[in-house]
Write a structure and sequence with these properties.
It is a single chain. This protein is of the alpha+beta class. The protein is built from 22 helices and 14 strands. It folds into 2 domains: 233 residues, 3-Layer(aba) Sandwich (D-Maltodextrin-Binding Protein, domain 2), CATH 3.40.190.10; 206 residues, 3-Layer(aba) Sandwich (D-Maltodextrin-Binding Protein, domain 2). Helices cover 45% and strands 12% of the residues. The strands form 4 sheets. The chain has a 5-stranded mixed sheet with strand order 2-1-3-13-6. Strands 7, 10, 11, 12 and 14 form a 5-stranded mixed sheet that branches. Helix 21 packs antiparallel against helix 22. The longest helix has 19 residues. 45% of the residues are buried.
Length: 471
């Protein structure tokens, strides 16, 4: 993703209406009148500028468009899915805050090209949904604000955030986004097949605790069920391979980013991980040559024991588990990645609300703070999507524990870790690493060659995109 920096010397101006522009054009030849009319235009047309006007703030988000179904609903507890819940939340905020005019724009996922164009035009939104892995890019270009003042205005203490969500938005001692959730990889499990394989105990699946157990249990599963132990999406899904590598490097406490402009992957820790997954693929206990849609279809169709994918799939798989006659009916469970080395750690990312830099009135800033308070108060509703809550109180609440499968995955809110703060171009890095590591998992490259190529390509990216000292 190419970011377009906003020069610090340029004042970010508000949009003017047609009448104001006409006045300025008429007076352009007269410097004094131009200044007068310019001041009048800004004073009269800035959103929320008048004492009796509503504070106008402009929100931009992804998560899809579902206005036909949820465009008028305000009962968040009855909304379903990411799109339905966020749409209903915004409706409810507007209904409860008549002194604020919150307009929203839905962008096609992921929305960053449009955001960059808006920033280049010096007319960004007031609030934007952003993946936490991209925050460092926008902070480095001085395009988004620290949100400490907004949190203070909303009465939100940073200590209220989970460890995983707070670390994902923290950089140089400041928070640059209000975390909305934490998401990452999980083991989605077919318990009916696990029972057939003799890998259930006290109603729970038996998961491996070492690489050796992983291989032993996978062979036992395939021998007894005739199906793959693990469903892998190794075609066109670079995130899968990168997520596996990141999780188990973090578990081994590997220092694979010595600094924010360098990666180190030619290490014993990385080789252990790649060799294990390479052995799994080669031993006949894994699916082969599947992309993400094929892998999802395999799991939903009862064609494998474990599908390692994200929190965002819980809702779909839970729905399948409730349908009589379906392969997953009453046969679904989900847990964090098992601890195979070192510490119990999972690589995670998340969604956050960020505030692009631009001029705002005090009234607009207070409106943003009030929206933050509202989002925090409805964090449980958002957690029904399958993503983990961003706030400790929600993770620890009886209501969250009562949601299906949540007690088993709740520890990720504490054990989850993002990439080190300050690492830029995380999406591009994930793509490069995932492509090379997946080639090793599939046997298309040796472990050493894949890790060497991944390290070289990422460091070359850093050298080309980040000038010395920009870390």
């Amino acid at each position: 993703m190419t970011l377009i920096p906003l020069p610090s010397s340029v004042r970010v101006e508000r949009r003017r209406d047609t009448r104001a522009r006409a006045l300025l054009d008429f007076a352009r030849s007269k410097r004094l009148w131009s200044a007068i009319f310019g001041c009048l235009a800004i004073a009269s047309c800035a959103r929320g500028g008048g004492d009796d006007e509503r504070a106008e703030i402009y929100l931009q988000r992804f998560f899809g468009e579902c206005g036909a179904e949820f465009g008028r609903t305000t009962d968040v507890s009855r909304a379903e899915g990411e799109c339905g819940i966020i749409t209903t939340m915004i409706n409810k905020f507007n209904a409860q805050n008549p002194d604020i005019e919150l307009s929203s724009n839905v962008v096609a996922w992921p929305g960053y090209p449009q955001l960059n164009a808006q920033m280049a035009a010096r007319d960004p939104p007031d609030l934007v949904t952003m993946h936490t892995g991209l925050i460092s890019d926008y902070v480095a270009s001085d395009l988004i604000e620290p949100i400490g003042p907004y949190l203070a205005d909303a009465g939100i203490s940073p200590d209220a955030l989970t460890d995983a969500s707070r670390s994902a938005v923290s950089l140089d001692g400041q928070l640059y986004g209000l975390p909305f959730d934490t998401h990452g990889g999980l083991f989605h499990i077919n318990t009916k097949l696990f029972a057939k394989a003799g890998l259930m105990k006290d109603g729970k699946p038996v998961l491996p605790t070492s690489p050796e157990e992983f291989l032993t249990q996978s062979k036992q599963f395939t021998e007894r069920t005739g199906k793959p132990y693990i469903i892998q999406s190794l075609v066109g899904d670079n995130a899968y391979a990168a997520r596996n590598l990141y999780t188990y490097l973090l578990a081994q406490n590997a220092n694979f980013f010595p600094n924010a402009r360098q990666i180190r992957l030619q290490t014993p820790e990385a080789e252990r991980i790649v060799n294990m997954f390479r052995s799994i693929t080669a031993s006949g206990v894994s699916t082969l040559n599947q992309d993400t849609p094929a892998a999802i279809a395999s799991f939903v169709g009862g064609q494998g024991g474990i599908y390692p994918t994200g929190t965002w799939m819980i809702g779909q798989f839970e729905s399948e588990a409730k349908k009589p006659g379906r392969p997953l009916y009453q046969s679904y469970a989900v847990y964090p990645y098992p601890r195979l080395w070192g510490k119990d750690v999972s690589y995670v990312s998340g969604h956050a609300w960020v505030v692009p830099k631009r001029e705002r009135t005090d009234k607009q800033r207070r409106a943003i703070g009030r929206f933050f308070r509202f989002v925090a108060d409805h964090n449980f509703d958002w957690a029904r999507t399958g993503h983990l809550p961003a706030f400790k109180a929600v993770v620890e609440s009886p209501a969250f524990a009562a949601l299906p499968y949540r007690p088993g995955i709740a520890p990720v809110a504490t054990t989850g870790r993002p990439l080190p703060a300050g690492v830029q171009r995380q999406n591009a890095i994930e793509g490069l690493i995932g492509e090379e590591v997946a080639a090793a998992f599939n046997g298309q490259k040796s472990t050493k060659q894949a890790l060497a190529d991944a390290e070289r390509r990422v460091n070359q990216l850093f050298a080309e995109l980040l000038p010395p000292g920009n870390n």
